[in-house]
Every structure is written in structure tokens, then in C-alpha cells.
Amino acid sequence: MVSPIIDAARIVKDYGSARALHGVSLQVGAGEFVALVGPSGCGKTTLLKILAGFEEPTDGRLEIEGKDMRGVPAASRPTRMVFQKLALFPHKTVAENIGFPLKLQKVPVAETKDRVRGMLDLMHLRPDYLQRYPAQLSGGEQQRVALARALVSRPGVLLLDEPMSALDAKLKKSLQAELKKLHRELGTSFVLVTHDLEEAMMLADRICVMRGGHVVQVGTPADIYYRPANMFVAGFIGETNFLPVAAVLTASGVQVTSPLTPGASAEIATEHVAPSLSEKGTALLVRPESIRIVRNDAKAGEWTLEGVVEEYFIKGSSTQYRIRVPGLEAAVIVDLAGSIVLPARVGETVRIGFDPTQAFLLSE
Ligand SMILES: Nc1ncnc2c1ncn2[C@@H]1O[C@H](COP(=O)(O)OP(=O)(O)OP(=O)(O)O)[C@@H](O)[C@H]1O
209 lies in which domain range? Predict the structure, then answer.
């Protein structure tokens, strides 16, 4: 990142005696789309509010567009925020709502009109909506008006606090697609707080995973999915299987063995090992789509386990199996490509196999 538009360093936030953020650092590049994800109460909204200027950090440094933001009020920052709950003015028309930030900036009336029209087009809202009131619009349309109002003053950074969580699944999908397109077209930096991990994977250039007021990992969706920092991140995004292993460092990687596959060992290359690997709870992360049911001979190097099919779900493009393997606490999840002929039935004993060198080695 040459020069980040947002540079937050060691941000601490205390509410009374409770610490919501424990020294969070995050940089956002110009034009980048970053998603903040993490369990409820981990500090996502607090961080967003600090970026917006609605909360002051207790400690740490925040620069936006190269300027120190200490004491700079929200309205004077190059940021705009869209909230989860609609914050439209109910007694103002759509045109007045969208044009409101420009009115505050004393932008001439004719220019305001043009820019409001432009935003309406960008948001695919019909021109006759301009004279409507928020209550006369659907939830999705209202959220589009809120986005238009946030973007009309051309902020450098748009901050989005779960803007789609109140919408039904179909509306959400269409607004997600529009948000991605909008981001590409405008070149504005977006920071999105979301509970929806699929949404984060789909929209963001980088994902920041938070837990208990700390940043656990920042990376591309591929990094987060394929190279998670630890079991928490791995379990947070996508479905996971963890196979406990003993690990020994070698010249070119890590040698692993598992009590569940006696006699078998595998060399895991460094690029398949979490950088922060510790000795506590070392395990191989095997994604459900990387496991197969072994009917005949195992392939060279493949590790196999025997288990009983506990349940299966037809998901459409794939069928998901839950297989109970003695010695493993959680059932093994296996995703097999969809087929009209089911490869195994409930209660059947099956052998499952995977290539350990393609798994990812991590720890608690
Ligand atoms: N105004 C406040 N006063 C006191 N505590 C607060 C305040 N705002 C947030 N907190 C606390 O700070 C912590 C972080 O809250 P925050 O809203 O940032 O979490 P979040 O990750 O956005 O959660 P969610 O996903 O549920 O919205 C929580 O423990 C919360 O209770």
C-alpha cells in the first residue's frame, strides 16, 4: 500500500472500565474495499464510529488522507457513514434527503439538483421518486437513498455499518451486487461492517477479522479462507474439519503425524503452515470439499479414516455428509459434488480420504 487513505494505529477504546478495543491497527488503501468481521461485541462498530468521528479513541493515532483526526468532528472528515437502521429524515422528500449534505455545504441549488439526479441514476431509482417520502419506499429503496445521501458529497471513504442486514435475502443479493459495482465505478474507499461472511468474501478486497477488541488477521478473502491465522479464523469463515496432529519442524517445512492415522506421516510445505504456528492444539485444517469417499485403494500419500455416516444434506450443487469418526470430537464434514446417485447412506461405514500435503497446518 503506497499511501493509505486510513491509517489507524494502536487504537484503544474504553467505555468506563470496559475496554472495547485493545490497540487495533488497520490501514485502508485509496479505493480499497475492506470488510470488518467478527463475533458480536468484538468492536467492529466501535472501530467504524472512531473512523467516522462519532467516538474519540481513548488512545492511539488515526490519520485519514494524511491528516491527524484528533478533535476533527464527523462532519469535517472525508468520511460518510450508512447505518444498519435507516437514518433518513421521514418528513423530507427523497430529493431533500439526498441533497441534505450539499445544503449544509451551501452548494448552489442548481448544482445540488444535478448531483441529486446523478445519484438517483447511479442508484437505479426512478426520477419520480424524488418527491416521495421515505415511508413510500421499500426497505431496499430506502437503503439506496441512504447510500445516495452518503455518497452525494463525494467522500473519500464510505463507512457502512451492516447496511443490508434488515433486507430480505433477494433484495440483499441485488444490493450487494450494486454495492460492488458502485465501488468499482466510484473509486471511493469502502469499509463495511458485516456479520455475513459470505458477503465479506464476495465484496471485499481485504477482510479484517476481529475478536474481543483485537485484530486477529487482515488478508484477502483467499488468505482468510485458505491461510487462516488460527482455528478461530478458520472456523469463522466456511466449514472446517480439524485433525489433531503432532508437528516437527524440518528443513523444508513441517513433518506431521496423527494418532488417528498410525504409521502415516506427511511433509507440509511452509506455504501450507500458519506463520504464527504454536505448539498448542496443532491441527490440520481440511476443508469439506477436499475430502472424498474412498471406495477402492487409497491414492499414494492419501490419509484415510473410517467412520459412520451420521447425516447428509442435499445442497444442490453438492451433497454434504457428516461422518462420525472414532477419536474425533466433531463429525467430519464432507462436501461431494452433486449426483443423482447418493454415494453413501446413513448408518453406512465408509472410508474417507484426503491429501495431507494440501491441507493447512495451524494451531489454536
Ligand atoms: N456506548 C457504549 N457504552 C458502553 N459500552 C459500549 C458502548 N458501545 C459499545 N460498547 C461495548 O463495546 C464492545 C464492542 O461493541 P461494538 O458495538 O463495537 O461490537 P460489534 O462487534 O459491532 O458488535 P455487533 O456485531 O453485535 O454489532 C461491546 O462489549 C459493547 O457492549
Answer: 6-231
